Amino acid sequence: MKQFSIASVALFVTVTAIAQETDTDREIKDIASRPEIQRAFEIIVELEPETERNLIELTEIPAPPFKEEVRAARYLELMRDAGIEDASIDEVGNVLGEWPGTEGHETVALVAHLDTVFPEGTDVTVKRKGDQLHAPGIGDDTRGLALMIAVIQAMKRAEVKTKDNVLFVASVGEEGLGDLRGVKHLFREGGPRIDQFIAVDGGSTERVLNHATGSHRYRLTFKGPGGHSFGAFGLGNPAHALSRAIYYFDQAAGEYVISGTKTTYNIGRIGGGTSINSIPFENWAEVDMRSNDPKRLEEIDAIFQKAVKRALDEQNELRRDGEPLTVDVDLIGDRPSGLVDPSTLLIQRALAATRYFGVEPSLTTGSTDANVPIARGIPATTIGRGGDGGGGHSLHEWWANKDGHLGIQKALLILVASAGLAVK
Question: Can you list the residues of the chain whose pLDDT is less than 70?
Fold first, then answer.
């Protein structure tokens, strides 16, 4: 392989030998060579100080689950300032910016999510340590939001025009119990047309996601009359029933996941009860199950349901007094799974664009906003946000601008290739 370095604007490009190039590689190189795209790449580098300021400002606006409104309002302003005239906030809180194409037959969406995993009250002040910026949520996915603004600015200032429409989306509810509610709303009946979908999430530069990991999430609640631990002894005990259910589930699921397509399970939270000397009237747990195979997800779900029923029946048989225990099994998260064929043009373009920037791409799996369109058979992928980082979903999260402009340039290149460059 030969390497070509293009100075401070920026490109550090590895080009495969001509005999190894695909048609898509050649298409990507041709688009990237256009003067307006080269100018957009230069603008992205020039914008780096402003992009960092946007990243810090947005990170310091808390966006806990289901409370993204303040960040959304500021993002709407940034989107309009960047050059999107038709920008708005929809019914569930997504920020939408419409970029009309010259032909407008189809629509390509570029998406980053507004929410973080951190609860209200978390200190999100950004602290600089050397070349690193430290704050909860600074990478996941606030960097994706800052990236999208830079893409819009570069396309606007370089006068890049696309044949198809582009829909820029800052989505709500990607994390945790948000259950992809923002993107699910986009794909509702009567929602905006979306023919291709590109999410920006995760830090890996080589990432090209084509396999959506599905998940089922439950809140499991055992209920009973409750009473004094000594005086009312003999009543059905929700805590004991919950413990049995977890034990039986762990025992059976642990054997199930040893072989086959990767499938996982987790008891993430447990709660309930009033005091050490009280029989609880309620105990609960939150359960997460994931798999890349929809069938295996259903099978591990069946194992869970069977464990819950067994625990309830056995605990009710043991009680000596009072009403029988009951159980609520509430589905609080349902992320669909699916697979995009690697030969799909969107995936091939994402792979080729990654190679263009000197990085060997890797097809990956994951649970992101792209799950929804993938499950519906719509070409979709998730790409990394560029730069370097770590500590995701922790209070010690950090991000560093290590060639971060390349992640923005790559996102722009994939987007323009997918929407079609309108040659002047």
Answer: 1-19
Q: What is the pLDDT of residue 20?
A: 76
pTM flag (> 0.85): yes
Residue-wise pLDDT for 102-147, tens only, equals: 999 999 999 999 999 999 999 999 999 999 999 999 999 999 999 9
Neighbours of 36 (CB within 10 A): 20
> In this structure, what token pair is assigned to residue 375?
């499950």
The answer to whether the beta carbons of residues 107 and 195 sit under 8 Å apart is: yes
Amino acid at 2: K
Rounded to whole angstroms, the Cα distance separating 269 from 266 reads: 9
> The tokens of 396 are what?
């010690």
Average pLDDT score over the chain:
94
Rounded Cα distance between 224 and 278, Å, is: 12
The letter for the amino acid at 248 is Y
State CA 362 to chain mean position distance.
18
Q: Which helix (H) or strand (E) holds 360?
A: none
Strands 132-134 and 127-129: antiparallel
C-alpha distance from residue 112 to each of 87, 118, 171, 311, 327 (Å)? 15, 17, 6, 42, 38
The torsion angle over the Cα atoms of residues 49, 54, 56 and 62, rounded to 10 degrees, is 180
C-alpha 229/C-alpha 207 separation (Å) is: 54
Domains in the chain, please, with CATH?
2-213+337-419 (3.40.630.10), 214-335 (3.30.70.360)
Q: What values do phi and psi take at 231, rounded to 5?
A: -65, -30
Q: Is residue 363 within 8 Å of 292, Cβ to Cβ?
A: no
User: Would you state the pLDDT for residue 204?
Assistant: 85
107 Cβ contact partners less than 8 Å away, ≥ 6 residues apart: 164, 165, 166, 167, 192, 193, 194, 195, 196
Q: Are 64 and 93 in contact (CB under 8 A)?
A: no
420: left (phi over 0), alpha (psi -120 to 50) or beta: left
Q: Specify whether the backbone of 226 is left (phi greater than 0), alpha (psi in -120 to 50) or beta.
A: left
User: What is d(CA 371, CA 113) in angstroms, rounded to the nearest whole number?
Assistant: 13
CA distance 340 to 210: 5
Run of H or E including 410:
helix 404-419
